[in-house]
Amino acid sequence: MKVLIIDDEEDIRSIAAMSLGILGGMEVVEAESGEDGIAKAAETQPDAILLDMMMPVLDGPGTLVKLKENPQTKEIPVIFLTARSMNAELEKLKSMGATGFLAKPFDPTALSSQIKRIIGAE
Q: How many CB atoms lie within 10 A of CB 25?
């Protein structure tokens, strides 16, 4: 299983990548911005995308819109990684095409199983 992590914080990407790669046995691709993530999603065709909510320039919701507009990436499940958990906001993101949500800080030992559960790959 291949997962693309789109997050502007290098430490979050590193922890998630180690967790998914070492503990989860997954292939991991990293992107440090929404724009970079959109390009890498089209190029690498991951099985799931872990997307940060708040990033400079192109935030998570803006990135989601662009991913869903692109025929190459529109079917890839997108899971938001967010420190915010306002129900109205999460419902809006679901209506925009988000598959699920995981809270920051996340548990590195459970991350791969949480992703698999959310996308129905368990």
A: 9
pLDDT digits (tens, 9 = 90+) for 43-58: 999 999 999 999 999 9
Q: pTM for the whole thing?
A: 0.95
Torsion of CA 20, 24, 28, 33, to 10 degrees: -30
State the CB neighbour count (10 A cutoff) for residue 92. 12
Q: What is the CATH number of the domain that holds 67?
A: 3.40.50.2300
| 29 DSSP assignment | E
End-to-end CA distance of the chain: 11
Q: Which residues of 26-53 are buried (b: 16+ CB within 10 A; e: fewer)?
A: bebbbbbbbbebbebbeeeebbbbbbbb
The parent domain of residue 66 ranges over 2-117
Residue identified by tokens 């662009």 is 66
